[in-house]
Amino acid sequence: MEETTPTAPDAPAPELTTRKPGIIRRIIDFPLVLIVIASVIIITIVTGLSVVFTQVLGWVTGPGSLLGGFLIAVAMVLFWKGYKRWLEREPDREMAFAGAAKELGAGLACGFLLFSVMTGIVALLGGFEVLGVRNPVDTAIWYVGGLAFISGTFEEVLFRGVLFRQIERLGGSWTALLVTSVIFGAAHIQNPDASWFAAIAIMVEAGILLGAAYMLTRRLWLAIGIHAAWNFTQGWLYSIPVSGGDAPIGLLITRRVGPDWLTGGDFGLEASVVAMVCATCAGLTLLTLAIRREELRGAWYWRKGQ
C-alpha cells in the first residue's frame, strides 16, 4: 500500500488566510478621507511652525527666516515619510532619497531657466528693465530663500503629493490634473493684487507644469525644484513680486513698464500672458514625455472593489 501524508482537517484554504481590512481601515483608505486627514495635518504643521519661528523666535528677516523655511521643508519631508508609513501603509516612492539630488537639481535648473526666459521675452517686448545691481548683502536673500523652501515643499506635498495622487486614484490622471490645477489657481485668488486672470494664469501655467512634472517622474523632487527655483528667481534675482506679494529687494534693480497683460502688474510676472504661454508650453512638453512613458493612469480605486 502506498503511504500518504495525512492532511489536517482543520487547515484553512490558502485563500481564506488573507484577512480583509476592517471598516475603520477601509474608511481611512478612501481617497477623500486621506485628503482631509493629510491636509489638516500639513496645514497644522506649517501654521504652527510658522507661528513659532516668526512670533516666538522672531525669525522674520535675516538668516533666521532662511533657517525657518528650511526647517519647515524638513518637517514636510518627515511628514511625508510618516504619512506613507502609517496612513497609506505603502513604501515611500514619492520622496525616496535615492536619485533625489538629480531630480531636485534638474527642477531647480528648469525653474531658473524657465523664469529667466520669460523675463527676457518681456524685456525684449519693452515691459522689463534692469537699472542696476545691488550688493547681495543688502538684498532680501534670506527671506526669499526661506519662502522658496516653504512654497516648494509645502505646496507640492499638499497639491501634488496628496491631492493629485488621491484624486487620480478616483478619477484618473486627466481628472487629477484638471482638478488640482483649478484648486491651485483658486488658492491664489485671495493673494494681494490678485485678479481672476492671475488665478487663471496660475491654474494653467503652474497647474499643468507642476502636475506634469510629478506625472513624469511619479516623484515630488522635480516639481519641488521647479516651484522653489521659480519663486526664488522671480523674487530675489529679478526683484519681481511673487504671487502678489510686495516686490522683494533682490539682486537686480528692475522696473516693470507697460500694460498688465505684458508685465503681470502688481501680482508679478506670473500673471503675464508671456508667462502663461511659456510655462504652459513647458508643462505640455513634460506632459507629452509622461504620456510617452505611459504614465497616464486610469481610476483604479473603484476597480479594486473597495
Produce a short descriptive summary.
This protein has 306 residues and is mainly alpha-helical. The chain has ten helices and two strands. The radius of gyration is 23 Å and the shape is globular.
Fill in the keyword field for this structure:
306 residues, mainly alpha, two-stranded antiparallel ribbon, 2 strands, 4% strand, globular, membrane
Structural overview:
The protein contains ten helices and two strands; from the N terminus they run ααααβααααβαα. With 306 residues, it is mainly α. It has a domain at 99-297. Helix 7 runs parallel beside helix 10. It is globular and about 70 Å long. The relative contact order is 0.14.
Average pLDDT: 93
Find the count of extended strands (DSSP E, 2+ residues): 2
Shape: globular
SSE run: HHHHEHHHHEHH
- Which segments are poorly predicted (pLDDT under 50) over 5 or more consecutive residues? 1-17
Helix content: 55-70%
Distance between the termini: 51 Å
Major sheet: arrangement of strands = 1-2
Strand portion, in percent? Answer: under 5%
The helix tally amounts to: 10
Q: What structural class do helix, strand and pairing data support?
A: mainly alpha
Main beta-sheet annotation: 2 strands, antiparallel
**Radius of gyration of CA atoms, rounded to a whole number:** 23 Å
GO molecular function, one term: endopeptidase activity
Transmembrane segments: 30-53, 65-83, 104-128, 140-159, 171-189, 195-216, 273-291
Organism: Croceicoccus mobilis
Protein name: CAAX amino protease
Layout of helices and strands, plus pairs?
Layout: H1 23-29, H2 31-56, H3 63-87, H4 100-124, E1 128-133, H5 141-171, H6 173-186, H7 196-217, H8 221-237, E2 252-256, H9 260-263, H10 273-292
